[in-house]
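2.7 Reproducibility. Because tokenized structures are sensitive to small changes in the input, we list the exact sequence used for Urease accessory protein UreE, including any N-terminal residues retained from the expression construct. No trimming or masking was applied before prediction.
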Amino acid sequence: MLTANKLMPQGGGLAPVLLKRAATVELDWDVRQKSRFDATDSQGRQLGVFLPRGTTVRGGDVLVAEDGSLVKVIAAKQPVLVITHCSEHGTLFDLMRAAYHLGNRHVPIELKPDHLKIEPDHVLAGMLRSMHLIVREAEEAFEPEGGAYGAQGHSHGGAPVGPVLHPDAYAAPHPHDRAPDDHGPSHDHAHGHGHSH
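Resulting structure tokens (single pass, no recycling of outputs):
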């Protein structure tokens, strides 16, 4: 087994030709947020990765093995929930509200200008749909936002993972959270407007 104990964030400082020649390894988010794990690279080599505690590996980072060889990390596709706003019944601001509520629950979130991504969770999906957001299942790479006070040296550290509240905490939204139409807590947002939430 080949040991890798050095990480170069986004391959910084490496010549493009070296990156192009490097072996690759596909890792999902569950593995990439660990500082010690085993993997197999694209050349069939067994890797034992031992990084400083608290290190999070991102897609595009480069592992340096003990023999000096480079292994570029690819964020593997994995099941995720993609959250978008309903243009017929809401605005992009609804995504900001969703990010706030998810953040309060310490849920790792990938933030994009027009959507959010989280790991599958049927309780959270129900909460988001009750907020009139569109939630769909997908298989995509997952790169959640890093913590603002991450301990590691590069700027995209792991998102903090904290306690998950009891499902009762995901009750119907506060009346002020609803659109000014007559949508109530029992409204399932199946409007027949071309998409299912």
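The mean pLDDT is 81.
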